[in-house]
Design goal:
By secondary structure, this protein is an alpha+beta fold. 63% of the residues lie in helices and 16% in strands. The strands form two sheets. Strands 1, 4, 5, 6, 7, 8, 9, 10, 11 and 12 form a ten-stranded antiparallel β-sheet that branches. Helix 1 (2-60) packs antiparallel against helix 2 (65-131), helix 2 (65-131) packs antiparallel against helix 4 (147-222) and helix 3 crosses helix 4 (147-222).
Length: 425
């Protein structure tokens, strides 16, 4: 009798351990899928915000040859965001399919457990009916050879009754778990259907945007001469600002080298002829330069409000207009009317000037051996020599006759032009 009770106890313990382990790993799997779903949903929300911003900028900008090129670039950005949303939706749907499959496996396991518990419970009830009548219980207790044995038999009967109650409660619990799991599966299926509907709408919007892009490309192709003339004018404007900046840098080099020569003549007679080191005369300037470098990839965007890049850095052929070749010393960022330019890092305003060929007012800030350039400002809030801090407002960005508000932004390491996108967050 003792051996049977011991074996029964071991079997129950092992069953409990296995069930607990299964539930733990199932919960861990579901938790991992939930985190992945939340991450995908956050990325999808971010892409939708990008599309919302781009759509607003597209609505604000009126038609012209140059603005049509910017519109085409904005449309390409919007289509890329739309494709990202569709890709994220596909990943979310795949995760939901996996989640539904996992829950169905868990549901089957719960069903098997419930059937096993019901069978054991039915057998025990049958055993009670046959053998555990009141008379049998008294006979079982009173037929013991000793009082100790009789006491143990009474305790065994109580434990057996307790196990019966436990099994009945377990049946109710398993049935409840099954009902909840079925509800989870139905809810997940409903969410999946919602995502499938969203994906279909996004796919339709993408098709419409692709058609709009083809129309825009055709229209600009018809105005090829006008567009090339405007691009040539833009190139002249870029060259003008390049000359202004290079003249400014040359003046600073000459001034600091002259100061270094005078100081050297009064001491050891040596002088530092390195243009780069001439900008790092003080500990503060060296620290500022080092700090600017260490913040590569984390600098804030140089303007307030919503924005999209409409002209990237460097020389490139347009992906849709093969005859269009552009060059940009920095990046052009379109934003909404009334937006302001802001400093991307602590520094000193080294110049405020007007570019005759375009860009309206322009501000240059020095950060040790690095320069940042903010072009096309309608009004300027700072002056030469001012110390500025990160995100300090520099001026209001100009809005042109076509209702486009575009900031021209550059980053330079002295005369070397750097790609701003690699520095901005």
């Amino acid at each position: 009798m003792k051996y049977i009770r011991f074996a029964f106890s071991i079997r129950n313990s092992l069953t409990a351990i296995l069930l607990t382990a299964c539930l733990f790993f199932s919960a861990a799997s579901v938790s991992g899928q939930t985190r992945a779903m939340k991450q995908l949903e956050e990325k999808r929300k971010s892409a939708l915000e990008d599309i919302e911003c781009t759509s607003q900028l597209l609505k604000e900008t009126r038609s012209s040859t140059q603005s049509s090129l910017n519109r085409l670039n904005l449309l390409a950005e919007q289509m890329a965001s739309r494709r990202q949303i569709i890709s994220l939706l596909n990943q979310e749907i795949a995760l939901m399919d996996q989640e539904i499959a996992d829950m169905n496996v868990q549901l089957n396991e719960l069903g098997d457990d419930l059937n096993a518990i019901r069978i054991n419970y039915a057998k025990s009830l049958q055993n009670i009916y046959i053998r555990h009548s009141i008379q049998y219980k008294w006979y079982f207790v009173l037929s013991a050879e000793t009082f100790t044995q009789s006491f143990r038999r009474m305790r065994y009967l109580r434990e057996y009754s307790s196990r019966q109650k436990h099994q009945a409660a377990l049946i109710i619990k398993k049935q409840t778990e099954i009902n909840l799991k079925q509800q989870e599966i139905e809810q997940t299926r409903t969410e999946k259907l919602s995502l499938l509907d969203i994906r279909e709408k996004e796919s339709n919007r993408l098709q419409a945007e692709e058609a709009e892009q083809k129309t825009a490309v055709h229209q600009l192709t018809q105005k090829q001469k006008d567009l090339q003339a405007e691009l040539a004018q833009k190139k002249k404007e870029a060259e003008a600002i390049d000359r202004q900046i290079e003249n400014l840098i040359n003046l600073e080099i000459n001034r600091t080298l002259t100061a270094g020569t005078s100081a050297g003549s009064g001491s050891s007679g040596k002088r530092n002829t390195s243009p780069e080191s001439s900008y790092l005369n003080t500990k503060e300037e060296r620290q500022l330069s080092s700090s600017f470098t260490s913040n590569r990839g984390r600098l804030p965007y140089p303007l307030t409000g919503k924005y999209r890049i409409v002209s990237p850095f460097g020389e490139l052929k347009h992906p849709e207009l093969k005859y269009v070749r552009t060059y940009n010393s920095g990046i052009d960022i379109q934003t909404t009317a009334g937006a302001e330019a802001q400093a991307v890092f602590n520094g000193v305003v080294t110049a405020v000037f007007t570019v005759e060929a375009g860009y309206n007012h322009c501000v240059i800030i020095r950060h040790g051996k690095y320069l940042t350039v903010y072009g096309n400002l309608r009004t300027v809030y700072v002056k030469q020599g001012d110390k500025v801090s990160t995100r300090q407002k520099l001026g209001k960005i100009a809005t042109d006759i076509h209702n486009a508000t575009i900031l021209h932004f550059e980053i330079r390491r002295e005369k070397e032009k750097l790609n701003p996108r690699r520095w901005l967050n």
